[in-house]
Amino acid sequence: MAELYYDLNQLKCGPVSSDDITLTVDGKDTYEEVKKSGRYRECKRTQGVSTTDLVGRMLLMTKAHHSNMGSSDYEQHTDNFGRMSTESPEFHNIGHVDFLDAVSQLSEKPYVIVGLHFDQEVNRYKGKNYPITNIHERTLSVLACQYVSEVVIGAPYAVTKDLLEHFKVDLVCHGKAEVFPDRDGSDPYAVPRKMGILQKMDSGNSLTTDGIVQRIIKNRLLFEARNQKKEAKEMAVIQAMNRLEEEKAK
Predict the structure, then answer these.
(1) Rounded to two decimals, what is the model's pTM?
(2) CA nearest to 145, candidates 106, 179, 107, 95
(3) Helix intervals (H) in the chain
(4) How many Cβ atoms are within 10 Å of 158's Cβ, its own excluded?
(5) Which residues contact 106 (CB under 8 A, 6 or more apart)?
(6) Contacts of 91 by beta carbon, 8 Å cutoff, 6+ apart
(7) What pLDDT, in 10s, does the model give residues 120-130?
(8) Which of 9, 110, 130, 131 has the fewest CB atoms nearer than 10 Å to its CB?
(9) Residue 177 — left, alpha, or beta (φ > 0 → left; ψ -120 to 50 → alpha)?
(10) Which of 131, 2, 112 is nearest to 54 (CA)?
(11) Cα–Cα distance between 39 and 20 in angstroms, integer?
(12) Which of 88, 159, 163 is nearest to 126 (CA)?
């Protein structure tokens, strides 16, 4: 959480935060002022999902968080999960929420189904250590979104006719992000494209997961560079003081 810069006299309702320990750079409680005003509310955080952990995954490029749910033993049971459909490899930022909001506005009574790919499938076409959040974490995040009616866990990368008929999909939506080919090089949206039910959506938000990762890495480098400059200045002061002491001793 960032530090608060609100004018408490102008606040009609206070912030709501999880029960994490949040401190400013000088060690003070981030929400001290709003707590004193009586306008602070706290909710129990989701166990096992940590922002610090997610940032660590971005910086360290680890894959230890990936689930093994892409195994053949698990995939045979995916039909047990479950009319506008959208597929999402990640669900990290307000851009994804804006996209689902835009999709939900395409109908007076929308029923938005989000297909989530297994971690191994996302990593196949996105590379690096993507997805940053595993299939369990992404499912929890998507289910919590007010614009989502249903989630398909382990949705196939290619949108098939059987899938569309099974979920009675009227429209398949995709964002402006690049569409990577399937394992055999084919277009994963070939079927809905041919049926004329594929719609490319613009969320109006340019924020991406890659952008967030780069922002975090950039800030880390800036922080390290700032500390290096600070240490160099401190060392220069110490050396100057030592020289003064040596001169006095002569």
Answers:
(1) 0.58
(2) 95
(3) 32-37, 51-60, 72-75, 94-104, 119-126, 135-143, 161-166, 190-195, 209-249
(4) 17
(5) 84, 171, 173, 199
(6) 116, 133, 138, 141, 142, 145
(7) 898 898 888 88
(8) 9
(9) beta
(10) 131
(11) 17
(12) 88
Number of CB atoms found within 10 A of residue 168's CB: 10
The position carrying tokens 């689902």 is 100
Average pLDDT estimate for 30-45: 78
N-terminal to C-terminal alpha carbon distance within the chain: 54
Written as six digits, the tokens of 144 are: 């919590």
User: What is the structure's pLDDT at 48?
Assistant: 56
pLDDT tens for 2-20 read 333 334 444 455 566 666 6
Beta bridge partners of 172: 85, 198
Distance of CA 172 to the CA centre of its chain: 22
